[in-house]
Design a protein that fits this description.
single chain, six-stranded mixed sheet, 11 helices, four-stranded antiparallel sheet, 10 strands, alpha/beta, 275 residues, Rossmann fold
Length: 275
């Protein structure tokens, strides 16, 4: 469990990034943290594994204050995948990149090899084992950063803007993977601007604006609330916008994804066909 209690944080420039933020993320939660640029999303999640320490307030991971332990020890439980993979990658080959943390955490050689193979296969990177990470495309480097974290099997996985640089096929694979990861009991936290991706995933949403949490709830509840999306500078999902336009036909306006829209429209058409 991650508990954030009254956390404030300001950068040396004087920018107040977090203002009295309190949040609880339970074991096994799937949470999307959303909001405009500068809302404090990345700053908040960097407190989860001690990359940043609160100016005031406290952050607890499984009951332990992040002030009292090192980032290295927290990273064993809270894996963090940076928005820019170039801030995370530094080894000469893809294989060495995935193996690095495993060796650093003291895994035996046989386990290191098996986990590297598993992670590369999972993220579709097996063919690049001996390639330099910096020869990969942006999307491939993003997947490599994720593989390097998943390899050590942390209980909490934090993904900062994971869909940037990914095409539709890779986004869908990522969505399925995240849902599967969460179904296996992992806690997943995603920082993202990708409203359509969130609408398809349907997680709990924590909405931020100006360093504060302005809403916390179900994806449908948040993404179909005009006042909240406007406050956080978020454009509602395309399906929501379409169904709002079809409200005069008696259709619901709280539709957020294609799968839901298809079900509702098929039901509507069947009703129309009845004599």
């Amino acid at each position: 469990m991650i508990e954030v209690k009254g956390v404030c944080f300001a950068y040396p420039t004087g920018v107040e990034a977090l203002k009295e933020v309190s949040l609880e993320i339970r074991d096994g939660d799937f949470v999307a943290i959303m909001g405009s640029n500068g809302a404090g999303k990345t700053t908040l999640v960097k407190h989860f594994n001690g990359l940043l320490k609160p100016a005031s307030g406290e952050v607890f991971v499984d009951g332990v204050s992040t002030r009292s332990v090192s980032t290295a020890s927290l990273a064993r439980e809270v894996g963090f995948v940076f928005q820019n993979p170039d801030h995370q990658l530094f080894c000469e080959t893809v294989e060495e990149e995935v193996a690095y943390a495993l060796k650093n955490f003291g895994f035996e050689e046989g386990i290191v090899k098996s986990r590297v193979t598993w992670a590369l296969n999972l993220l579709g990177l097996t063919q690049y084992r001996q390639t330099s990470p910096f020869m990969l495309s942006g999307g491939e480097r993003k997947r490599l950063a994720l593989a390097s974290v998943l390899a050590w099997d942390p209980q909490v996985v934090v993904l900062d803007e994971p869909t940037i640089g990914q095409d539709y096929e890779q986004k869908e694979k990522l969505r399925q993977f995240i849902v599967q990861l969460n179904a296996q009991g992992k806690t997943v936290v995603v920082v993202t601007h990708d409203v359509e991706f969130v609408a398809d995933c349907g997680p709990r949403i924590v909405l931020m604006a100006e360093g504060k949490i302005v809403a916390d709830g179900d994806a449908k509840e948040i993404l179909t609330n005009k006042e909240l999306t406007f406050k956080a500078s978020i454009v509602p999902p395309q399906m929501t916008q379409i169904f709002v336009g079809l409200a005069d036909f008696g259709l619901p306006t709280d539709v957020i994804n294609v799968h839901e829209a298809r079900r509702i429209l098929l039901g509507f058409l069947k009703e129309e066909e009845k004599p």
